[in-house]
């Protein structure tokens, strides 16, 4: 027999255990059913995958010879060799050169051809344009490390000449652009300079130099010492370069009068550049006449009716300006002074003291300055 007390205890425990099992089984069953229903719903409502699946695969096929230390700063794309394929040029600031990649077949590029920009030049940016009017694209580069702009002239086959540099003096150019800023149909260059908080503009001349009466007039109003230096018969190219560098430094430091540039004529840098051109003509004339019997002259086309003169009413036609140049072409050399400066067949002194001419030049240059 089972003791009555034990039987009572069993009756107390068994109902509790049975209730717990029923609720547990019920919860498990409902949960399982919910999961199954959810899976079925997802399977029935999900869109069917397409028969064909598009895959986006990127594969590098272009060969590159840029080394790990090149640090290219920018890129310009153009057709350098006229083969209807795009080429590229990059300034490699880490290796002090520009790299030209010529376009190849199948949208690839040949290994780069490098052109040196100079030790520690750190080229930052490039721009392309036809700077010398030969229908070939040229390259200009902003050399941050050596404070200059470098020009690489292009050839027919897509190669480039060695670099010619133009100083930005104390400024470090970081960005560069090209356009015709003074409407003379010649491409100019502008750079953004780091360190001096300014921009620098280089006005192009198409690689043709023309003298101006301003060059003979500006010196007449400068110190006697400067007049003697510019007109000295023993002046050398090195000495002339030094004179120009001193002038540029004085412009930067605002000390022109201190070193003898006392003229009040407007556009002083323009006038001094013409005075230097006339002086250089005399130096070159002496050198080439002795070596190869070549005669060198400087000529002024006059105050012509162009965009530069703002088409002033008292300006002359461009045709008359051309005649002034052609006069020297057709005149026998024994009737001209080698190294002389001419306008309309008349020779002018290197330092012109004609007060009426000085007054006219002052007024005309003032008009040009106002038009700008």
TrEMBL record:
Q: Which InterPro entries match?
A: FG-GAP, Integrin_alpha_N, NAD(P)-bd_dom_sf, SDR_fam
Q: Which Gene3D superfamilies match?
A: 2.30.30.100, NAD(P)-binding Rossmann-like Domain
Keyword terms of this UniProt record: Membrane, NADP, Oxidoreductase, Signal, Transmembrane, Transmembrane helix
Q: Where are the transmembrane segments?
A: 20-45
Domain of life, per UniProt, equals: Eukaryota
Instruction: Give one GO molecular function term.
Output: oxidoreductase activity
* Family, per entry: Belongs to the short-chain dehydrogenases/reductases (SDR) family.
Tell me the protein's name. Uncharacterized protein
Please report the organism this UniProt entry assigns to the protein: Adineta ricciae
